[in-house]
Amino acid sequence: MHLPYATNGDLTLRIARDPYRTVSRIAGKLEADAFHGKLMLADTVFLTGPDCARVFYGEGMIRAGAAPSFLKMTLFGDSGIQSLDEAEHEKRKAMFMSFMDKGAPDRIAAQVAKALDDLARKSPDRLCVQDEMERILTRVACDFAGVPLSEDDVEGRTRMLSALFEHAAPIRPTFLAAVANRKRANTWAANLISGARSGAITPPRGSALEEIASYRTVDGAPLSREVAAVELVNVVRPIVAVSCYLTFCAHAVATNENGWEAVHDRPQSFVQEVRRHYPFFPLVAAKTGRELDIGGETIAPDTRVVLDLYGTNHDARLWDDPMMFRPRRFDDRKIDPFDLIPQGGGDHHAGHRCAGEWVTIAIMRAFTDWLTRIDYRRPKQDLDLAMSRLPALPESRMIWENVSLRQ
Ligand code: HEM
Ligand code: MYR
Question: How many domains, in total, are found in the chain?
Answer without folding.
Answer: 1
